[in-house]
Specification:
alpha/beta, 3-stranded parallel beta sheet, 11 helices, O-acyltransferase activity, coiled coil, AB_hydrolase_fold, LACT/PDAT_acylTrfase
């Protein structure tokens, strides 16, 4: 992330770079985004820290709204971007969600182009792995999906709070007057309306997501003008050799209508599953089993957090690039090869 900060500084203030900087060494910088942001936006990614120290739910709420998260998303001019696939209950096809609009058919899949660098991690019960490669032409908006998930999570919290308050009020009225009747009216979920229908969204409203993206892309498009050769050095160090999450597939494999099983029929149930995952898989808003739902990643080469295609693809005039294999994102600084 620090590498992106300096790159932005160099784009906005090239004169200051010429005056004060003679060498820039960047380590594991996600120049083309970090696929872990999918996990952050849906479940919360606490950087492998114990949940006792960093609650994933809190991290999820922070990562959804702070501006630095948007710098870790893939640039609009990069057609290779991680995607989310959801196979809803009893649906044969996977519905894919991505960061970019696919109107111009430019969202080619990185897995499709460089299959030799891809390691698919698929549960043994899944026999057809080809369908886990996203199609070239069909892609729904991941941001719209997250907006709807956020809406249903807010509704779940509201209904739970109202139910708890109603129960408390009922018990108090019973204590005061045993003949007082409790209303059978249960709190209702408000339906979801997209921002395309003229409804104010619950997420990314002020400033809007579109304005944030527009400003970030405006800065990203600025050239990086380094001082002349001999007066400035840029060295890019990145990690590789570790399976790094790429596409996320949420797969509901349930086949039996068992009363105690939870299934993802729509985005509403998907939001409950995300809530369950954001709490470390320890609790869910409904008392059911999620044993038939799997979160499966397709993996590519990287440092466990940033894919190689992103960290090595700086697009700048580079004096040297060093690849350190076998170390994850947080151990690169401890590697003797880096110190040498």
């Amino acid at each position: 992330m620090g590498g992106l900060v300096f790159k932005t500084f160099a784009q906005l203030f090239p004169e200051d770079v010429s005056r004060y900087v003679r060498r820039w060494i960047t380590i594991g910088t996600p120049f083309q985004g970090a696929s872990r942001m999918i996990q952050g936006l849906l479940f919360g990614y606490n950087f492998k820290k114990p949940s006792a120290f960093i609650n994933p739910k809190i991290i999820q709420n922070i990562q959804r709204v702070i501006l630095p998260s948007f710098w870790l998303l893939p640039p609009k001019n990069c057609p290779f971007s991680p995607k989310v696939g959801v196979q809803y209950y009893r649906k044969k096809e996977i519905k894919w969600y991505g960061f970019h609009s696919d109107d111009e058919l430019k969202c080619w899949d990185y897995d499709m182009l460089i299959r030799t660098n891809v390691i698919l991690v698929i549960a043994t019960l899944i026999s057809n792995s080809d369908k886990y490669h996203p199609p070239h032409q069909i892609q729904h908006s991941l941001f719209d999906l997250i907006r709807e998930i956020q809406h249903w999570q807010n509704e779940i919290e509201r209904v739970e709070q109202e139910t708890e308050e109603s129960s408390t009020s009922y018990k108090w009225k019973q204590f005061l007057s045993p003949v007082t009747k409790y209303s059978d009216n249960q709190p209702q979920y408000s339906p979801y309306y997209s921002h395309y229908q003229g409804v104010k969204p619950t997420l990314w409203d002020n400033p809007s997501l579109e304005k944030i993206q527009e400003r970030i892309e405006e800065i990203r498009s600025k050239p990086v003008i380094f001082p002349e050769v001999g007066e400035f050095e840029f060295i890019n160090i990145y990690g590789s050799g570790i399976e790094t999450p790429w596409h996320l597939i949420i797969h509901d494999v349930g086949k039996d209508d068992q009363k105690d099983d939870f299934h993802i029929h729509s985005v509403k149930e998907l939001s409950q599953y995300c809530e369950y995952m954001s709490k470390g898989g320890e609790e869910i808003p409904i008392s059911v089993s999620v044993s038939q739902i799997y979160s499966v990643w397709s993996m590519i080469d990287g440092d466990g957090t940033v894919p190689c295609y992103s960290s090595s693809n700086d697009g700048l005039r580079t004096d040297a690039r060093f690849e350190i294999r076998g170390q994850d994102h947080f151990k690169l600084l401890q590697d003797p090869r880096y110190l040498l």
